[in-house]
Amino acid sequence: MLSFRCLIVIIAGLSFTSFADERIEHDIQFITDSLALLQVMQGERQPQSIIEGTNSLLFAQLDLSDRVTFLPFKRHDAALKSESPTCTFFRVKTVEREGRYLFSLPVDIFLSPRLYQIASGLSIPNTYLDNQRDIVELADFFNNSQRNATLATMPNASYGQAIDEALAKIVRSSVYQISANDSYSGLIQLFLKRRVEFMLMYPANTGGLETLQSTELRSYGFASVPAIIEGHLMCNETQQTQLFIAQANNALRQLYRSTEFEQVLKRFTPVADQALIDEKLSALKEQTSF
C-alpha cells in the first residue's frame, strides 16, 4: 500500500501542469517577517535580493503571491509549532529543524554568511584568521580578545550548522539579538548606528548597506564553511503542507531549468562569485531530473 507521502507526491506530479491555469486551494498560512518580500509579492516593488526574486517567481507560478502575510519574526516559532498549516521562507536546514519540519527543495542559492564591521573599527587580529583572512573560530575572538566586542544577530535564525554551533559558545553579553518587526532592516540600522561593532548577515540580505562606500565596510568569511548556502520553504507537518511541499518541489524542478531563475540568482551575486551559482544550479538540475 502506498504511504500518504508517496500518494501526495504522485498527485502533485499529475496536477503540476495545471499550476498556471488553476489556483491551488488550501488553508496554509504563508508568513514572512520581511516587509520588502511582502511588497514584492503584492506587486508594489521589484525584487532587490535573491530571496525576493526566487520566492516571487515560485509563488507567481503557484498563483499564491496574494496569500503571503507579514508576521514579526519573534512570533514565527509559535506559528510553526501550532496545528494550523503554516509555512515560511528562507530557512536553512539544521538537524533539529529537519526532525520537526518539512522542507522544500532549495529556493534560494546564495553566498554564505559573513561577519560585517565598519572599516573605521579595529580589524580582527590575525591570530583569529587563516591565510585567506577568514575567521577560524568565531567564539575564540569574542570570548578571548579582551576588547568587549559586540555582535548583532537575528533571533532564532540559523546561519548553518557550523556557525550556529560557534554562536552558541559566545558569552551572552557579547551577542545582541534584534527584535524589530522587520528584522533584516532593524539589524542593519542597529549596525549603521554603531550600537554594535559587528553584524552577522547573509550577503543576500545586506541591501540596506548601500549608504556605505565599499571602503567603509569590512567583512570576514568563515573557514570550513561552504561558499554557498541553500534556503528553503519550511512548513510544519500537516496533510495540507505535505501536499504543498510536493507541489512546490515540482514547480522548482521547472524553475531550475528556466532562464528567469538563473537570471535572478546572478543579478544579485557578484560577478566574481557567479561560477559558484552555475555549479550549484547544474548540480540541482542533475539531482532533480524528471
Q: How are the SSEs ordered, and which strands pair?
A:
Blueprint: H1 4-15, E1 29-32, H2 35-41, H3 50-61, E2 68-70, H4 76-81, E3 86-91, H5 95-98, E4 102-103, E5 108-111, E6 114-118, H6 138-144, E7 151-153, H7 161-168, E8 175-177, H8 183-192, E9 198-201, E10 217-220, E11 228-235, H9 239-255, H10 259-267, H11 274-287
Parallel strand pairs: 1-2, 1-3, 7-8, 7-9
Antiparallel strand pairs: 3-11, 4-11, 5-11, 6-9, 6-10
Short description:
The protein is α/β, with parallel strands linked by helices. 37% of the residues lie in helices and 16% in strands. The strands form two sheets. Strands 1, 2, 3, 4, 5 and 11 form a six-stranded mixed beta sheet that branches.
Structure description:
The structure is a single chain. With 290 residues, the chain is of the alpha/beta class. It has 2 domains: 4-110 and 228-287, 3-Layer(aba) Sandwich (D-Maltodextrin-Binding Protein, domain 2), CATH 3.40.190.10; 113-220, Periplasmic binding protein-like II (D-Maltodextrin-Binding Protein, domain 2), CATH 3.40.190.10. It has 11 helices and 11 strands. The protein has helices at residues 4-15, 35-41, 50-61, 76-81, 95-98, 138-144, 161-168, 183-192, 239-255, 259-267, 274-287; strands spanning 29-32, 68-70, 86-91, 102-103, 108-111, 114-118, 151-153, 175-177, 198-201, 217-220, 228-235. Strands 1, 2, 3, 4, 5 and 11 form a 6-stranded mixed sheet that branches. A 5-stranded mixed sheet has the order 8-7-9-6-10, with helices on one face. Helix 1 (4-15) crosses helix 9 and helix 2 (35-41) runs parallel beside helix 3 (50-61). It is globular. Residues 1-22 have low confidence and may be disordered.
